[in-house]
Amino acid sequence: MKYFCKKKSEYGYVSVWPKDLYCYDYIDFYLAGLSFRDNIAQYKGEHVGTLELEPTNTYDENAIRVLAEDGYHVGYVPKELTATIRDRKPLPCNCYFYIWSQKIDGATKYLSLCYIPMYE
To answer: Nearest CA to 73 among 96, 49, 93, 92?
Structure first.
């Protein structure tokens, strides 16, 4: 099952949107901390994940981590969105994320988009 489709924006960038679900209420964001994850390349593509509180995080006691289906920690919800998500969605909850690679200044960088449907 495909969760995402690609659309070309008026600015020429390729955006990733939830397939057939983007007309509903959702929160979307780029995953934080991808560059600190080992083996992130094996998670390229579409995935169903889980958002989970991480109160033992030494940098942010309100941190919300994103886990792949196999339990691998792929990244975090950006700090500026954690309060919004905590207020609007009980955790843990499902999320959907897409990871891709891109050459930037000669180096391979991993980018992502994650979304949380608010109607599930």
So the answer is: 49
Domains of the chain by residue range: 31-36+49-94+102-120
Q: Is the pLDDT of residue 24 over 70?
A: no
Residue of 115, 92, 113 whose CA lies nearest to 45: 113
Instruction: End-to-end CA distance of the chain: give it in Å, rounded.
Output: 17
- The model's pLDDT over 55-105, given as tens digits with 9 standing for 90+, comes to 999 999 999 999 999 999 999 999 999 999 999 899 999 998 989 888 889
Are residues 37 and 73 in contact, defined by beta-carbon separation less than 8 angstroms?
Answer: yes
Strands (E), 1-120: 4-8, 14-18, 26-29, 45-53, 64-68, 73-76, 93-104, 107-117
List the structure tokens of 90: 């009980």
pTM: 0.81
Give phi and psi for 36, each to the nearest 5.
Answer: -95, 0
| Burial of 16 from C-beta contacts in 10 A (0-12 / 13-18 / 19+) | buried
